[in-house]
Automatic annotation (TrEMBL):
Keywords for this protein: Glycoprotein, Secreted, Signal
Subcellular location: Secreted
Protein name: Uncharacterized protein
Origin: domain of life: Eukaryota
One annotated GO molecular function: oxidoreductase activity, acting on a sulfur group of donors, disulfide as acceptor
């Protein structure tokens, strides 16, 4: 069995040697929170148009979304988490955590979250609930009940706390700011800030792709 496995491994590794003209790819992790205006702006005006672009999309090795932001878990058993933009933002972060879990098609996910980020008012903080009924036409068929079930149960809290741990680990208990764009899991504040201004430019720089700011989105 071991030998067989070895042979299989050998043959797949031979096959997967990249062709000469393979485009280098980058992994992107976005640390964000649902109600910060810069996060909303970045997601809808930079990340989504880049990820869904027919030329830039293939440059992503993977895309990781981490919706926790500048928040603190005060008491895990009591589900007490304090978010920068109050309770409604914690709800939003939890809701996004569930959407990320249940929408496996990354393009559909980005399209949906972009719509949410674009349509939730910045000043909707006080005494309101995160508007989970927005952008329903962007949710793939049959998945909304699963997202809601997650959101209204322990599953949502667990996912959110996982994202909290990832966020704390990444910032290593240092100063946190969002949106934060990390390439290939590295922490580079200058690059993160440049990427927020013009993601396509940085993706071009990291992959050697010729920069073009106006190409087409393929997904709708
Ligand atoms: C956390 O919340 C639980 C449940 O409400 C409570 O029993 C516990 O004392 C709290 N822990 C702290 C450290 O406040």
């Amino acid at each position: 069995m071991l030998i067989l496995y070895g042979l299989l491994f050998l043959s797949t590794s031979v096959i997967s040697i990249p062709a000469e003209n393979t485009t280098p790819q980058v992994s992107l992790t976005l640390y964000y929170e649902t109600l910060c205006p810069f996060c909303q702006n970045f997601f809808s005006n930079e990340l989504a148009p880049t990820f869904l672009d027919k030329d830039y999309g293939p440059l992503f090795k993977y895309l990781n979304l981490v919706p926790f932001g500048v928040a603190e878990v005060m008491n895990s058993t009591a589900h007490k988490i304090v978010c920068q933009h109050d309770e409604v933002e914690c709800q939003g972060n939890r809701f996004h955590s569930c959407a990320i879990k249940h929408i496996k098609d990354k393009k559909a996910l980005v399209n949906y979250i972009s719509c949410l980020m674009d349509s939730v008012e910045v000043d909707s903080e006080e005494d309101e609930e995160y508007p989970v009924d927005k952008c329903l036409d962007k949710v793939p068929d049959g998945l909304f009940p699963k997202i809601m079930k997650c959101y209204n149960s322990e599953e949502g809290w667990k996912l959110l706390e996982e994202y909290g741990k990832m966020t704390k680990k990444f910032f290593n208990d240092g100063e946190e700011f969002v949106p934060y764009v990390s390439f290939n899991n590295e922490k580079n504040d200058d690059l993160a800030m440049e990427a927020i201004e013009d993601l396509k430019k940085i993706m071009s720089r990291l992959t050697g792709k010729q920069y073009s700011s106006s190409s087409e989105e393929e997904y709708d």
